[in-house]
Structures are given as C-alpha cells and as structure tokens.
Amino acid sequence: YDADINERNEPGNMGWKPPLLSGGDPETRTRRLNAEIANGRLAMMAIIGMFFQDGLTGSAWGDWANYTASPLRAFENELGVQAPLGFWDPAGFTADGDVYSFKRRRSVEIKHGRICMLATMGYITPEITGKFGGYLSPSEKLAFADIPNGLAALGKVPFLGWIQIAGYAGFTEIQARYDADINERNEPGNMGWKPPLLSTSDPETRTRRLNAEIANGRLAMMAIIGMFFQDGLTGSAWGDWANYTASPLRAFESELGVQAPVGFWDPAGFTADGSTENFARRRQTELKHGRVSMLATMGYITPEITGKLPGYLSPSAGLKFADVPNGLAAISKVPAAGWAQIVAYGAFCELSQDQSKGTPAAAGDFGFKVLTSSDPAEKTKKLAAEIANGRLAMMAIIGMFFQDGLTGSAWGDWANYTDSPLRAFENELGVQAPLGFWD
C-alpha cells in the first residue's frame, strides 16, 4: 500500500511497464504520463454520467424515451411547453408528479394571463385611440375623459364603480363554476366559451392558438408589472425618467463623477437616503483618497523610469535616496524622524484648511490652482477627469501593494513569488493547458 509514494516516490508507479506505453525517453514518458492523467480525468466524468444515464433510462446512452419513471414525463407534452426552454420548472413545483396540482396551477396561469392581456391593452388603447365620449357616471358628472390612464385612475373611480367591478368579477367566477375547467372539462382554462375568431374545430390549429394564448399571457404578466412600476415611479406607463422627480437619486445624477458607461452607479445604495450632506462628505473623501492614490501610484512608477534623487535622504543617518528600495520595502528604511515629518505634513494639510460644511475645501477645492480653467465647461471636464483618474489610481495602488507584497516587485513577476504554497506543484504531471495548475 502506497509503495508508489513511499518507495518509488512517483504517484501511480506500480512497478508495471506496459510494453506499448512505457518508454526510455524521459520526454516521451512525461508526455504519456500527462496524457494518462488527462484521459483519466475525462473518464471519471464520463463514467459517472453513464452511471446516471444507465440508472435512469436502462441504457448508458441515455435515451430519454426510456425514462418512464420521471415525474416530469406527465407534463412534457402539455400546452405551454415551448422552445427554447421546453419544459421549464426551476422551482420544482411539478417534481411530485401530481397531475391535479399541475392542472390547477395551469388554470391559474391562464386566468392571470388573460386578465393581464386585457390590462395591458387597457393601458395602451386609450393612449392610441383616445377615450370614450360621454359620462362614466352621469350622477357625479364624471366623464370618461376625466379618468386618467394607468394607476391614477384608481383614485377617480366612484365607490359604486368598484362595487360593479367586484360584482362582475364574482359573477364571472361563480357562473363558470370554480375549477369546473379542471373537474368537469379536464382542460385548464376551458370556461366553455368559444370566441368566434379564436376558436376552431381543427385540432392542430386549436393547439397552436392555445399555446399562443399561454405565451402571450406570460408576456402580458411581465408587461403589466413593468407598467405598474413605471407608472408608479414616473406617473406614466411609458416610464419617462424625467418625470420621476421623487427619486432620491435625482439629487446626484448630474454630479461630477457620473460618467459613461455606468452613469450614476451606487450598487451599495449609499445615496438611497437622498442626503446631500452625506453625499458631499463621501465625495470629499473620494477626492482625497483619489489624489493620495494618484501620488502613490506615480511614486511607485517614477523611480523605476527616471531613477532616484541623488544625495542623502538623511545625512545624519547616512541614508541616501539610492539606498531606499522602491515599494513596500521602503517602509522599513525610512527613519523615525522621517515618519514624524510625514505625519506632521499630513496633519498640516488636513488642519490648515477650513473643511466645514459648505466651504470650498469641503468640496475638494483647497485653493491650489494648477489644472483649473476659467472656462466652466473646461473646468468641469478636468474635475471629472480628476475623479476618474483618482478612481483608477485607487484600484492601481491596491493592486501594486498586493503584487509587491507577494513578489517583492510592484510589477508582480510570478517567478519572484517563491513563498507561494502552490509553487511546489506547478511543475507536476497533470499541470496542463489551458488551466495550468488548477486547484
């Protein structure tokens, strides 16, 4: 047991030399051993798949027609099973194979689809054709033209109108007899009504039309929900963003930093409360971090390109600029007095400006005019560029820290990362393209 590891120090070497596969040439032997590992991996996947196919269908080639015990087989030829998804039930509602439950859900789906098709057309039609003439309620002098389109109509319908709507819906449900389409006609959605232009005696045409009804109903359910959201947020089912004045995001969508292709992007929802004070504080912090990161990134790059300053960084300590390495290794070379100077200068920059709410410094303007412009459009473009470059620099400097910490160089040469626990295995058999060493 484990002699291939403990005695021969070669996993898989059982001491057997197959005549056609073994070879004295080391390069050929390595290639063949790699091929054995790759083929073995493929075979492990293949045999598990064949076991499943064989167990479910009685054949390793997995003919679906043989899998008669599947609870899904009862529904795969039902109406609504359409390309490209076929029979699609990601939530597993039909996993128990209960035919009655399936038909009950299908009946509900068809009813909801029909209502949503009517509702969707009810949104669209008045916008295209206009509204009826005359009065909706003569006693209240309420004309059809007075009823707005969409959700706003809910507040205009008189109380007796709601009674009529609820009464008609109840009459329709009771007249059709609850679940009669399933219990009596054994056909979900069949309410016994034959629409003149949609009904047909041709079975193939009827099936095609019923499938179309289900597909259109599904689309309408998605459409009407979208229209409700658009209407509720913008006051129009067509969702004109300019009308959504109550959005807490509207206060910030024209701010600096709102740039293509993402536009105003706040996936964490920091601005959801609409607080302009909090937004201004975060923007000030973003600007400072971006500026520091731009300087830090250039501090990494410049010595590599131009070299270091001549002379001494600390004459008293005999420390030259040339003695200070680039990157994180410099941290241990800076004398304590140097760190005191750095901290003191940072504190001076922070405390020498009034950064209270509403001041120019609170918006990142510290009175230092180098890249500014008297042209408002040009100034806005430059400030937006500063934010964008600062964001890029924040990502860049963090990446350089990681590369430097792992490899000893901000340029991240993998060959220098000798402490990686993965380095012990990257030249082993089985490390193959395209993945390389994959764990």
Description:
With 439 residues, this protein is mainly alpha-helical. Helix content is 45%, strand content 2%. It contains 9 helices and 4 strands, in the order αααββααααββαα. Strand 1 and strand 2 form a beta hairpin. Helix 3 crosses helix 6 (203-234) and helix 7 packs across helix 9. The radius of gyration is 36 Å and the shape is flat.
Question: How is the topology of this model organized?
Answer:
Blueprint: H1 3-6, H2 26-57, H3 99-129, E1 135-137, E2 142-143, H4 159-175, H5 180-183, H6 203-234, H7 276-306, E3 312-314, E4 319-320, H8 336-351, H9 376-407
Can I get a quick summary?
By secondary structure, the protein is an all-alpha fold. It has helices at 3-6, 26-57, 99-129, 159-175, 180-183, 203-234, 276-306, 336-351, 376-407; strands spanning 135-137, 142-143, 312-314, 319-320.
